[in-house]
């Protein structure tokens, strides 16, 4: 569609918005809540604007702990009060349907996958998804089964770093050399994606040994999606556009995040956000007249979903082969079709055809997927989901779409958040040498042996405190969202009306001087017996970078294990200092997650 028609359409929506917005706003009687971000346009859509939530920090200090912003005609209530957050995070379990407003611009199969994700779904679909996550990454026995993979990926990542330090110019050309500094933020995702590959899918994605910085800011359209429509390569090629499956996943996950930032998003995203009642129309337009950003978003999502689909098929095939070898002659794997009987959401024919195409294209990519230990590992999340479907009562059985959605969610929720945490811990330690020295002494006490569950849980109190303090100052996701299912009393005569969108803005609590003494200082001892009296929080629920209540992050234990393991290995081997290339003070921006604008530049030296 010509650009001018797109803008004409936007103008039409804007006019409707002005008409309907005012009347709706009156109906909502929210005027008692201070209008922090004023009336009302893109700049006041905090999670989609570049510095939106950084801005809220200052405003909550000035205007109070309950604020209102307007998502077009929808009120967004921002709560920064720890007691209110705790109360309503426990009480409200649902996410607002508009939580997935970006999902509303997705089309076809991508839309179904998005809506089934444990991150945004509510009701039974969420419960089923949450249950499989809990079985795989909360349950102690399952977690312990992931430890060998985590150890393996950490060792490989550190070996890669050591190579760069030893021979920077020979090993890599370009920007991320040891001597020139290493942008930890750009590369540590190689480790977190490798762990995700093993734990979520049970395969070796190879990213722990790879310079994944090259996969950042890649255009998915030019690289993969546009060539095959599947993102998995033209038949026969083991990689796409020269990118391995691991790099493709990194590129697709990052592109998917990027497409949700207003400055990179499709025009249809803000339209869908501002006019909830027009979303079916917005989706129709996005389907039939996609702009470039929309196509990029769809290609990135399709790519991740198709890798999940391919791995489901692989799992089923290997089960059948195992059964045949055992002489039963019948397959025990669950058949994977685009329209599974177990499914609650079936793909329309065009989507099914695309999915078949993806599966066919995936055959070429199969060779690029290295299985761990001769098969998609049985301890993986994917295997747990697939096994769990067999013999389970119909209402508890995950559909194909749900299996894809949960493995998709695993990649999206786990890879970048944990990478952000690790790079920011590195930054905090590089700028606080006394903390780095204490952490180094602690990790040196452990020796080179495999890190067990007990070691990680009991022998690293200072390392854990450093991670927690970093997450207090720099939570990768600074807020979490709930839906008010009834009118909620917010105190001082303020009411959140039924159906409103609550943003529990934890970062403001983490930095509130009434809650945390000297909140701006990096003091890991707050989380240790020695410092908790002097520097601990006034409110027990005042630290919640992983959220609160039934919807608290289901990957928090896994994330802590991943972070501790890599920190032990890195600090045992290297001295890590800030590189002169790192601008100070650290500048962060908040989109869907909170990221360092200029990366985290450090120098590594073998100890
Ligand atoms: C340091 C790393 C991480 C941080 C800071 C983080 C943070 C969060 C936050 C703030 C939420 C929303 C919680 C709420 O609404 O109360 C969340 C939800 C979630 N996270 Fe994480 N996360 C991290 C790592 C992971 C990992 C490794 C996984 C992989 C399993 C994961 C999977 C999820 C899922 C599935 C949800 C949705 C849970 C639900 O709604 O029931 N996260 N995360």
From TrEMBL:
Tell whether Amino-acid biosynthesis is among the UniProt keywords. no
What is one Pfam family matched by this protein? Answer: p450
Give the transmembrane ranges: 6-24, 65-85
Transferase found in the keyword field: no
Gene Ontology molecular function: heme binding; iron ion binding; monooxygenase activity; oxidoreductase activity, acting on paired donors, with incorporation or reduction of molecular oxygen
The residues the record assigns to binding heme are: 553
Name any cofactors this protein relies on: heme
Q: Which keywords appear in this protein's UniProt record, sorted alphabetically? A: Heme, Iron, Membrane, Metal-binding, Monooxygenase, Oxidoreductase, Transmembrane, Transmembrane helix
Q: Which protein family is named in the record?
A: Belongs to the cytochrome P450 family.
The name on file for this protein is Cytochrome P450, CYP711 clan
Organism the protein comes from: Chlamydomonas reinhardtii (Chlamydomonas smithii)
Q: Specify the taxonomic lineage.
A: Eukaryota, Viridiplantae, Chlorophyta, core chlorophytes, Chlorophyceae
């Amino acid at each position: 569609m010509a650009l001018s028609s797109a803008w004409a359409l936007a103008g039409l929506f804007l006019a409707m918005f002005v008409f309907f917005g005012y009347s709706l706003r009156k109906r909502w009687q929210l005027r008692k809540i201070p209008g922090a971000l004023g009336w009302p346009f893109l700049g006041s859509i905090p999670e989609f604007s570049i510095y939106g939530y950084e801005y809220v920090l200052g405003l909550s200090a000035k205007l109070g702990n309950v604020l209102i912003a307007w998502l077009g005609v929808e009120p967004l209530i921002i709560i920064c009060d720890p007691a209110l957050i705790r109360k309503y995070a426990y009480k409200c379990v649902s996410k607002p349907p508009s939580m997935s407003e970006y999902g509303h611009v997705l089309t076809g199969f991508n839309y179904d996958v998005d809506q089934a994700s444990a991150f945004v779904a509510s009701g039974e679909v969420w419960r089923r998804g949450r249950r499989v996550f809990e079985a795989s990454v909360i349950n102690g026995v399952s977690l312990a089964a992931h430890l060998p993979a985590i150890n393996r990926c950490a060792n490989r990542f550190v070996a890669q770093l050591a190579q760069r330090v030893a021979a920077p110019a020979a090993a890599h050309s370009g920007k991320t050399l040891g001597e020139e500094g290493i942008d930890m933020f750009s590369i540590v995702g190689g480790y977190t994606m490798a762990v995700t590959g093993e734990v979520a899918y049970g395969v070796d994605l190879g990213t722990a040994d790879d310079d994944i910085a090259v996969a950042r800011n890649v255009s998915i359209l030019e690289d993969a999606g546009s060539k095959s429509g599947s993102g998995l390569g033209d038949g026969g090629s083991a990689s796409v556009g020269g990118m391995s499956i691991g790099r493709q996943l990194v590129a697709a996950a990052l592109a998917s995040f990027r497409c949700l930032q207003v400055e990179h998003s499709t025009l249809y995203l803000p339209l869908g956000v501002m006019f909830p009642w027009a979303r079916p129309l917005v989706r129709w337009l996005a389907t039939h007249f996609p702009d470039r950003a929309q196509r990029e978003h769809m290609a990135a999502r399709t790519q991740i979903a198709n890798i999940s689909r391919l791995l489901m098929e692989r799992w089923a095939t290997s089960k059948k082969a195992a059964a045949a070898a055992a002489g039963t002659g019948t397959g025990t794997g669950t058949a994977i079709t685009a329209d599974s009987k177990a499914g609650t959401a079936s793909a329309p024919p065009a989507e099914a055809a695309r999915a078949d195409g993806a599966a066919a294209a995936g055959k070429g990519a199969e060779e690029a997927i290295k299985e761990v230990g001769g098969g998609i590992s049985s301890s993986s999340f994917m295997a747990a989901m697939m096994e769990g479907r067999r013999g389970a009562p119909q209402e508890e059985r995950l559909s194909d779409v749900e299996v894809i959605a949960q493995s998709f969610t695993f990649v999206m929720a786990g890879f970048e958040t944990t990478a952000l945490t690790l790079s920011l811990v590195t930054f905090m330690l590089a700028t606080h040498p006394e903390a780095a020295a204490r952490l180094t002494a602690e990790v040196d006490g452990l020796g080179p042996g495999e890190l067990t569950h007990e070691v990680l849980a009991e022998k690293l109190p200072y390392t854990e405190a450093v991670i927690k303090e970093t997450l207090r100052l720099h939570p990768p996701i600074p807020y979490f969202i709930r839906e008010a299912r009834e009118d909620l009393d917010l105190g001082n005569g303020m009411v959140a009306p039924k159906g409103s969108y609550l943003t529990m803005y934890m970062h403001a609590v983490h930095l509130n001087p009434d809650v945390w003494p000297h909140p701006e200082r990096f003091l890991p001892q707050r989380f240790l017996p020695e410092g908790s009296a002097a520097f601990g929080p006034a409110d027990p629920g005042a630290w919640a970078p992983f959220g609160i209540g039934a919807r608290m992050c289901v990957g928090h234990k896994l994330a802590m294990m991943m972070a501790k393991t890599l920190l032990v290995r890195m600090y045992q081997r290297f001295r890590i200092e800030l590189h002169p290339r790192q601008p100070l003070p650290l500048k962060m921006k908040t989109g869907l997650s909170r990221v360092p604008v200029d990366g985290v530049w450090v120098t590594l030296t073998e100890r």
